[in-house]
């Protein structure tokens, strides 16, 4: 019996490796599909709303897609020029950032604090920081290079969403299985819609704050904050780095400290207070799982995988939580705050 269990484990392990290898080799297909899936989940409440108001499916779909395309085109137009300008000025920003670090070191020396400038520069390399920032900015743009394929996929997914549960109901007579599937779909939809709304609000607050401070490319950093807000804890830190450094170069250390305080305040108020109350504590992931999922999905799907890492992991956690045999894995992925409820 033990040999059989060991053999089964190796078969499952080998199957997982083969599936992951297949996903990695098919990223050109997988990434547009995942983006379309998440967009369809976020847009589905609007589509269902128009249907409930008595509009035909076709008209509801046209309205939702039209609104989405107009919104996406407006955002793309606003960030397109800023992203190009920022990328073209990377070399100049590197030099100015090195100069800013040198001034900070001199200021510290004047206050009697000796800082090892060479060691700090080797650890916090301005060139690497700016190249990483440029890579993230370009990665956001590359997400929608297959825009037509993604949009077409969203259209068919929305059309299918109205009949998906009905198909499952007719395919099986197991009421418990139907109930579990409906619960999983409902939880995933709720999580994605609420997370998207909270992320939009986060980006809006960052945009207004950066405009008030006077940081260049404020809308670009707001979009970055919106995208990276899907990554708890780590995402807000990554989103703050380019805005703080650019403010340091452009407006000086005092303004950079103000921008840092803004990001910290937004992260504490929205991320630690408002979001848990709206989302519910049961939909949290431990910090270790957040970091590991960021590394794993980033390795598997690139920058897009990093941006989608937490939604993908949350979807897996929701699915695992609905099955008694796999619920222990969902508990391990969670924050541990709802263990009493699980018991």
Automatic annotation (TrEMBL):
The keyword Transport does not apply. The chain crosses the membrane at residues 7-23, 29-47, 59-79, 136-159, 192-213, 219-249, 256-274, 286-308. The keyword Transmembrane helix applies. GO terms for cellular component: membrane. Coiled coil: none annotated. It is found in: Membrane. One of its GO terms (biological process) is transmembrane transport. Its main location: membrane. It is a multi-pass membrane protein. It comes from the Bacteria. InterPro entries: AI-2E-like (IPR002549). Keywords: Membrane, Transmembrane, Transmembrane helix. Pfam families: AI-2E_transport. Belongs to the autoinducer-2 exporter (AI-2E) (TC 2.A.86) family. This is Protein belonging to UPF0118.
């Amino acid at each position: 019996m033990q040999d059989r269990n060991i053999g089964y484990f190796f078969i499952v392990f080998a199957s997982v490796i083969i599936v992951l290898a297949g996903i990695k080799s098919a990223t050109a297909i997988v990434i547009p599909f995942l983006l379309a899936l998440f967009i369809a989940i976020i847009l589905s409440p609007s589509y269902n709303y128009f249907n409930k108001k008595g509009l035909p499916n076709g008209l509801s779909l046209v309205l939702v897609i039209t609104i989405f395309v107009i919104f996406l085109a407006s955002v793309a137009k606003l960030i397109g020029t800023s992203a190009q300008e920022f990328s073209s000025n990377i070399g100049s920003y590197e030099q100015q950032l090195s100069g800013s670090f040198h001034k900070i070191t001199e200021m510290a020396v004047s206050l009697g604090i000796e800082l090892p400038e060479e060691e700090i520069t080797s650890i916090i390399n301005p060139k690497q920081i700016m190249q990483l920032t440029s890579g993230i900015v370009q990665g956001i743009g590359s997400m929608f290079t297959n825009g037509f394929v993604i949009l077409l996929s969203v259209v068919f997914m929305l059309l299918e969403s109205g009949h998906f549960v009905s198909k499952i109901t007719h395919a099986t007579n197991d009421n418990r299985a139907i109930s579990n599937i409906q619960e999983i779909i409902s939880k995933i939809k709720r999580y994605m819609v609420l997370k998207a709304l909270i992320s939009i609000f986060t980006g809006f607050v960052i945009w207004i704050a950066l405009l008030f401070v006077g940081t260049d490319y404020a809308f670009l950093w707001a979009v970055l904050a919106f995208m990276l807000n899907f990554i708890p804890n780590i995402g807000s830190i990554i989103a703050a780095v380019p805005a703080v450094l650019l403010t340091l170069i452009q407006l000086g250390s005092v303004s950079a400290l103000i921008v840092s305080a803004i990001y910290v305040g937004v992260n504490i108020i929205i991320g630690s207070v408002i979001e848990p109350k709206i989302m519910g504590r049961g939909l949290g992931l431990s910090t270790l799982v957040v970091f590991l999922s960021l590394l794993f999905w980033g390795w598997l799907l690139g920058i897009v995988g990093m941006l989608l890492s937490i939604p993908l992991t949350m979807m897996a956690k929701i699915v695992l939580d609905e099955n008694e045999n796999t619920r222990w894995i969902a508990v391990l992925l969670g924050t541990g705050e709802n263990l009493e409820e699980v018991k």
